[in-house]
Amino acid sequence: MKDFNDIIEEYRKTFDEDASRIKDEKSLQELRNLYLSRKRGYLTLLFEKLKTLKPERPDVGENLNTLKKYIQGRLQSLKEELAGPEETIKRADLTLPGRKRYWGAPHPILLFQQEIENIFFGMGFSIEEGPDIETDYYNFEALNFPPHHPARDDWDTLYITDDLLLRTHTSPVQIRVMEKRKPPIRIIIPGKVFRKETPDPTHLPMFYQVEGLVVDRGITFAHLKGTLEHFLKVLFTEKIKIRFRPSFFPFTEPSAEVDIECTVCSGKKGECRVCGGGGWIEILGAGMVDPQVFKNVNIDPEKYSGFAFGLGTDRTAMFAYHIPDMRFFYENDLRFLRQFSVK
Ligand code: 2NL
């Protein structure tokens, strides 16, 4: 009987439409009752009708059973979908291979800082750290900055209150160490520093520095020169050319700036973007600690002398890795960062 099979097919379509509207347990239960209830469910009624058929009974019966199984299956999966993750986990295929996890990696600036730390560690230096937020005294006054020195200007320093500021260099940590500890002192201080700058290829309001300090009896400029030359040769290879130029810092006397031959044009001059054609790039500031700084921390400048130096970690990393823009370090573009990871 063709008509009966058509009716079965119509019921399947209606069921699918009804099933697509299910959104909670209650409507699911209603749907189940509508089709499978023993008393008045559509399928129950259809099976009763089946009894009245004669020759077509096996054929129609088979179709009706298929529909019943189909409806039961759909109701079961709807139930699991509504039950959420727990049911899904029960059905998950635990034999599938795991998904690949991305491991983090040290940031290139940290790797470069550690390279610097290792070189000084090899010369007997220890590593010290201090707070990013400092007082005016530790950041400027103890370091012999005159009251109206331009570095105290609003343009350079990010002030929090009249007395609290974001440190503009890591030197305040040296002051704190000298207050607590008597010579001999041989330390380096890596860390974040802050200046009120508009970001451009060579400036950022937050960057990294490594400063160093040596204090003992009989320390001379020769120690300064030998230490920094060794450091630069390990960092930039034995062949690198180095020059010292006279300079000025409020906290050192005499003071010097240290240049290396340009790593990009090898000092050939001309139109180099990195050294501006001069053939040299400035890497370090350094000098013999000013006696006034020693007096500020109760170290007798008649007995002790020392040298100090500072370098910009990001700036130096740019020359070491030939990176044209400092902002690349902080954009977190994985295509950039992955080039430095060990793997
Ligand atoms: C630069 C210059 C320098 C120092 C930092 C220093 C610290 C104390 C006493 C004396 Cl506590 N000096 N630090 C000395 C000379 C230069 O840094 O160009 N930095 C990026």
Description:
This protein is an alpha+beta fold. It has 12 helices and 9 strands. The strands form 2 sheets. A 7-stranded mixed β-sheet has the order 1-4-5-9-8-7-6, sandwiched between helices. The protein has a two-stranded antiparallel ribbon with strand order 2-3. Strand 6 and strand 7 form a beta hairpin. It is elongated. 2-{3-[(4-chloropyridin-2-yl)amino]phenoxy}-N-methylacetamide binds next to helix 8, strand 5, strand 8 and strand 9.
What descriptive keywords fit this protein?
single chain, alpha+beta, binds 2-{3-[(4-chloropyridin-2-yl)amino]phenoxy}-N-methylacetamide
Briefly characterize the structure:
The chain contains twelve helices and nine strands. By secondary structure, it is of the alpha+beta class.
Count of DSSP strands: 9
Each distinct ligand = 2-{3-[(4-chloropyridin-2-yl)amino]phenoxy}-N-methylacetamide
Helix amount, in percent?
25-40%
Class per helix and strand makeup: alpha+beta
Element-level helix/strand string = HHHHHHEEHEHEEHEEEHEHH
Q: Whole-number average pLDDT?
A: 90
Q: What's the main sheet like?
A: 7 strands, mixed
Unreliable runs = none
Number of helices: 12
Biggest sheet, spatial arrangement of strands: 1-4-5-9-8-7-6
- How far apart the termini lie comes to 72 Å
Instruction: Tell the overall outline.
Output: elongated
Strand content: 15-25%
Radius of gyration, Cα only, in angstroms? 38 Å
